[in-house]
Amino acid sequence: MHGDAASTTALLRELRSGLDVGGAVDVAVFPPFVYLPLVRQLLEESGDGALAMGAQNLSAFECGAYTGEVAAEMLADCGCRYVLVGHSERRALFAETDARVAAKFQRAQSAGLIPVLCIGEDLAQREADITLDVVRRQLQAVIDAAGVQALERAVLAYEHVWAIGTGHTASPGQAQEVHEALRATVARQAPEVAQGLRILYGGSVNAGNAEQLFAQKDIDGGLVGGASLQAQEFIDIVRAANAGV
User: Fold this and answer.
1) What single DSSP character describes residue 47?
2) Other beta carbons within 10 Å of 244
């Protein structure tokens, strides 16, 4: 929940001028709901298709009498390709359960959106050494509801809550351990789905740590938070991803 129309416009224009259009990685931006039409217009003006657009949240309900909610179909109509589902702040601050996250995941796919399923542990769970139990449970809740094949049309993002907004990050080895476990969880149920699954790392990714993180075998990209508000920082992260392809 950052920015206004002027700062959003300036950020998008700076990103477009600095990003390598011919890069090999997929890049998307996730503005607040009210700026989706503005960002769509700015991206269409560039005309090169280098940036896709996603939303930060969606309703678990179909269109109808749910005042204040935003339906998956509305997001698709606004030009979104992706939508975040189960972000840690939605889970922690708005009490979204695994079941609600699974419902949103399914609503996203029903409208043709690609859900970016966010999972991760908080500090108490990390210190209790139950990280893998937590992330497997969160992932399995979606698999149980939607089926493992649904992950072929989704992206997974591991964001350990204790790192978000703190400037702290897991070591590349710690992050790789969780990513490997997540891919193995899927592989036990559908090896071909696990092989093609993109798993992003989302714990204070920045230009300084991106190269080491993206060099890990099971880290396929980044879910960038605060660094995405600084155009050059975000551009450098994308360049690090392109360099590792």
Assistant:
1) -
2) 18
What is the DSSP code (8-state) at residue 53?
E
Q: How far apart are CA 231 and CA 213, in angstroms?
A: 20
Biggest CA-to-CA distance, the chain: 50
Taking the C-alpha atoms of residue 63 and residue 113, their distance in angstroms, rounded to an integer, is: 15
Structure tokens at 39: 């960002």
- Calculate the CA 181 to chain-centre distance: 18
Closest CA to 214 of 236, 195, 229: 236
What DSSP string describes 141-162?
HHHHHH-GGGGGG-EEEE--GG
Q: Tokens in use for 245?
A: 């392809």
Tokens 């949103």 label which residue? 104
| Residue 55, both tokens | 């939303």
| Catalytic machinery residues | 87, 159
Model's pTM, two decimal places? 0.95
The 10s digit of each residue's pLDDT in 64-90 is: 999 999 999 999 999 999 999 999 999
3-state secondary structure of 111: coil
